[in-house]
């Protein structure tokens, strides 16, 4: 059972084709076939790992052939390239003259006459006359939907697929305005600090009111968000800060910019790059100012 994964090659003599044959280990034994759910999962994760590793270097191009092997092998190899593939990577399938598809002893067009037979030992053709085509297969490249951590870490096939699947579904953003300070998307959640959470709640409440935050000026001394929004912020912050903290927070340029960056970083770690970029506080080109771009109907603030 073999699946061919190669570096891309063409007529350029400086580009070489490198072929790799992999052994997959399950419970200390070489995987000879894919017949059980466990073997299936191992194959999927290993192919995902292999393709991810080959696509790490910018100066390489990967060519994945889905010809041969079990059907699931071709599916996993092609899907792994769809997850990690870059513009220079290619996916292909090998096609042969129809009569030779039934041959059990056909491997390639031979230089001399060589009759080949089917499983019933009936001659189906002369291998010398066989034709083979390398058919390139277009595929959707989804690498941009993954954050750097997902690309570099050795996550399993199912985990990577789930990350992308979640990022493509309509967002339902739930904000638990209680001591937990959690931002939910589905069952996944990100916990923010009192200061971070207070700013995010203000942005969410303003979104529900059809309003946005004003980014404080870097060049105006002691400039802050609007006074009304400062008041909202500190009222929320009073509910979540430690009891021994008495000072009010001034949301100036430094605080605003640093907090937005921190919230985005935390969101990316939990939800992935694509979801984080959708739910973060960011510039609203339509309404002006900064806010959460998720539709109002998809935002729920609970106690």
List the helices and strands and how they pair.
Layout: E1 5-7, E2 19-20, E3 25-26, E4 29-30, H1 37-54, E5 62-65, H2 71-84, E6 90-96, E7 115-117, E8 123-126, E9 132-136, H3 148-152, H4 157-168, E10 173-176, E11 182-185, E12 188-191, H5 194-208, H6 227-240, H7 253-271, H8 273-279, E13 281-283, E14 290-292, E15 299-302
Parallel strand pairs: 5-6, 10-15
Antiparallel strand pairs: 1-2, 1-5, 3-4, 6-9, 7-8, 10-11, 11-12, 13-14
User: Termini, distance in Å?
Assistant: 56 Å
Number of strands: 15
**Total of DSSP H or I helical runs spanning 4+ residues:** 8
User: Mean pLDDT score, rounded?
Assistant: 85
Largest sheet: 5 strands, mixed
Main sheet strand line-up: 2-1-5-6-9
Query: What class do helices, strands and sheet pairing give?
Result: alpha+beta
Amount of helix: 25-40%
Q: What's the gyration radius in Å?
A: 28 Å
Question: What is the ordering of alpha helices and beta strands?
Answer: EEEEHEHEEEEHHEEEHHHHEEE
Shape: elongated
Extract low-pLDDT stretches.
Answer: 1-18
Strand content: 15-25%
Describe this structure in words.
This protein has helices spanning 37-54, 71-84, 148-152, 157-168, 194-208, 227-240, 253-271, 273-279; strands at 5-7, 19-20, 25-26, 29-30, 62-65, 90-96, 115-117, 123-126, 132-136, 173-176, 182-185, 188-191, 281-283, 290-292, 299-302. Helix 1 packs parallel to helix 2 (71-84), helix 5 (194-208) crosses helix 6 and helix 7 (253-271) packs antiparallel against helix 8. The strands form five sheets. It has a five-stranded mixed sheet, with helices on one face. The protein has a four-stranded mixed sheet with strand order 12-11-10-15, covered by helices on one side. The N and C termini lie far apart (56 Å). The protein is an alpha+beta fold and 303 residues long. A hairpin with a 5-residue loop joins strand 10 and strand 11 (182-185). Helix content is 34%, strand content 18%.
